[in-house]
Amino acid sequence: MSEKKIPTIRIGIVGGGGFCKEFIEKTISYSKKYIDGARIVAVADPDPEAPGIVLAREMGLIVVSDYHEFYAPEHHIDLIIDLVPEEAVFNDILETKPIRIRLLSNRVFRFLWNTVTLQEQELRDRTKELMTILDGIQDFIVVITPERNIVEANRAFLDHMGYSRDEVIGKTCHEVFQNTSQPCAQGDIVCPMNEVIRNRGADQQILTRVDRNGQLRYIEVTLFPIWESYGKISRFVEISRDITDRKKKEEEITQRLEQMVEERTRQLEETHEKLLHQDKMASLGKLSASMVHEINNPIAGILNLLALIQRIVDEGSVGEKEIQQFREYVHLMETETRRISRIVSNLLAFSRQSKLTVSEVNLNRIIEKTLFLNANLLKINRIKVKTNLAQNLPEVLGSEDQFQQVIMNLISNAAEAMEAAGGTLNIATVHSIKHNSVIICIQDSGVGISRENQKKLFEPFFTTKRKGKGVGLGLSVVYGIIEEVGGGIDVASEVGKGTTFKVEIPLGRTVKREKEGP
Questions:
Q1: Which of 29, 58, 375, 490 is the most buried (most CB within 10 A)?
Q2: Res 236 pLDDT > 70
């Protein structure tokens, strides 16, 4: 059921002097916002040039010279306010007015008016004090209505954004803040007013706004609601500050840091490549020393056979028997020459610098080749090798050179751990169907690694070797290679009993083989 509309009280004023003019002006000013159900419709004064009469005539109100005309039914006057100080006028109105018309005496009205005027002056003084305080605050303060109209703004906001008071007060917030006729709750702009309404509390954001000159500014905004007694928001108070300079400095610092990180990353990559090369060359040096003895043996054998053949030829007694011996000698020399060729080929394959070729790799074959290359080193250190390589081991996807480097590093480390007293090197491969992976276990019976050092094994430049024996890159390289193929490496060790490295390489990835030559 709709509310019943309250009828408007029609007011007639007796006395059109300056007080009447002041009363009409203030009443008209406030009536739209604060006065409901009452309206001044008529003014009576015998002086046609009285200030109140002139204003009433301009406003189109009923103007009469005799207040008795208010009694006419066609004017529908409900209340007469007496602004004439003479008591006789009040008494006459009181005696002659119809009973339906009420009367407010000059004395009572002036008392009420003075009371209201005093409160209004106090309110003005308090407002002035408040504005003085607000203008002294360096943060920007803006008061906005729920209809998005700006009703107050302090001096800091006006000066910083380049506006005059008249250019801001009465305008909508989006007109002033964004220079747009549309509310901010569109596109990428988040309206803090909507956030306050939704969350029923203060909201803080960093927003971009446009000043009077069209320059983009970064503003840190905090918006507070002011609640009326019946749960409705009457005003929004926005406290903000310009952080454009800070934002630009942060962006400059971020950009410089990004450039520094890029430059440092490039330097580290270059250094890493150099260190990898140095580590590989160091491994190659150790391997070459081992190969010298391995190559010298077949060469010495070939030279001895050649010397024997030469001596038989020089004696001049070359018969069928000697020719048969020559055939055996030549066969032995061919065997030894091929052995030298295999050693040199494997050594070159390990040391060459070329682009990594990703293919399907047989880890068993790499282990056997690496053991062959290290045979002399293991023999010199009195190390027995026991292998348990799984038959039909699936091939893994990766670089053969890198996998050989992994095996070479792990075998070399195991040999060095046992070089003092010899020992046994156990190497096994397993196909884990459960984890769809290939597992390599390399176990030595050497000196072992302390628990504290196990945590640092894969860190670059960490080494427990004597000075000149290594730079601490081998296992970090191993870790990087295994991680690159999505695998993992674990170590288990006990001081005085030995160490086991377990490498797991995932399966499930395939690669198209290159067509083999004839």
A1: 375
A2: yes
